[in-house]
Design brief:
Elements lengths: L25 H19 L13 E3 L10 H16 L4 E3 L1
Helix pairs in contact: 1-2
């Protein structure tokens, strides 16, 4: 019988968020993105890294986001899309 253990630390490093066509304040988008992604990782982990460390160069094939979102909502939705990618949805470039 195996032991189901969660990792003691999870580190997600994102080099850049490119937001073309949005008019929201980048600092507010970034803050909301970080909060929501941290919450999702705490709650659900990072399924792509279930067997150990993984490096992902790019996530593509994620759902489009409406341009009229507030900075907070845009950050949250972007974090959810990224977490979906880290959960095995979308196309991952290692």
């Amino acid at each position: 019988m195996g032991v189901n253990r969660r990792p003691s630390a999870i580190r997600v490093e994102i080099g850049a968020l490119v937001l073309d066509g949005f008019h929201a304040d980048p600092a507010h988008v970034s803050a909301a993105f970080e909060r929501e992604l941290a919450r999702l990782v705490r709650q659900h982990g990072v399924p792509l890294a279930a067997n150990g460390a993984v490096t992902v160069t790019a996530l593509t094939g994620l759902p489009p986001l409406p341009a009229g979102l507030s900075a907070r909502r845009l950050g949250q939705e972007l974090a959810r899309a990224v977490h979906e990618g880290l959960s095995g949805h979308g196309e991952v470039t290692p």
